[in-house]
């Protein structure tokens, strides 16, 4: 995986600290250890490379979340901490992540 962290105006963010965690290929998280979790720092061009496995989909009762990576990105004092996800969709089909987006939308606007 190659990442480049950019500021809102498109400039590289050097020395950004990335807290990374993910499930294994079967969609299982390793809660009792630091397996498939790590910390990375971007170079002067805001770039970092890491080697990992593709996370598997998971979920109960036919509600499957597409495999995804979790990231917390700390770009330093001039940026807010960003918590986000990167999806790994089968066949690169974005429809596999739509269940996540739909549920987030429903929860946000539920009265």
Structure description:
This protein is mainly beta and about 110 residues long. About 10% of the residues lie in helices and about 30% in strands. A hairpin with a 7-residue loop joins β5 (about 65-75) and β6. The longest helix is centred in the last third of the chain and has 12 residues, at about 100-110.
Task: Give the averaged pLDDT, no decimals.
Answer: 87
DSSP strand content: 25-35%
Largest sheet: 4 strands, antiparallel
- Which structural class best describes the helix and strand composition? mainly beta
* Helicity, as a percent range: 10-25%
Give the uncertain stretches in residue-range form: none
Radius of gyration: 16 Å
User: How many separate helices?
Assistant: 1
The total count of strands amounts to 6
Shape: globular
Distance between the termini: 40 Å
- What pattern of helices and strands is seen along the backbone? EEEEEEH
Strands of the largest sheet, in order across it? 3-2-5-6
Concise synopsis of the structure shown:
The chain has one helix and six strands. With 111 residues, it is mainly beta. The strands form two sheets. Strands 3-2-5-6 form a four-stranded antiparallel β-sheet, with no helix packed on it.
List keywords for this structure.
single chain, 111 residues, mainly beta, four-stranded antiparallel β-sheet, two-stranded antiparallel ribbon, 1 helix, 6 strands, globular
């Amino acid at each position: 995986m190659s990442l480049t962290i950019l500021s809102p105006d498109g400039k590289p963010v050097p020395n950004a600290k990335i807290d990374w965690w993910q499930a294994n290929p079967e969609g299982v998280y390793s809660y009792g250890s630091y397996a498939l979790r790590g910390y990375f720092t971007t170079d002067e061009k805001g770039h970092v490379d890491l080697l990992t496995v593709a996370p598997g989909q998971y979920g109960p009762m036919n509600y499957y979340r597409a495999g995804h990576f979790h990231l917390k990105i700390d770009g330093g004092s001039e940026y807010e901490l960003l918590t986000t996800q990167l999806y790994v969709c089968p066949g690169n089909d974005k429809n596999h992540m739509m269940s996540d987006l739909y549920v987030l939308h429903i929860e946000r606007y539920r009265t």
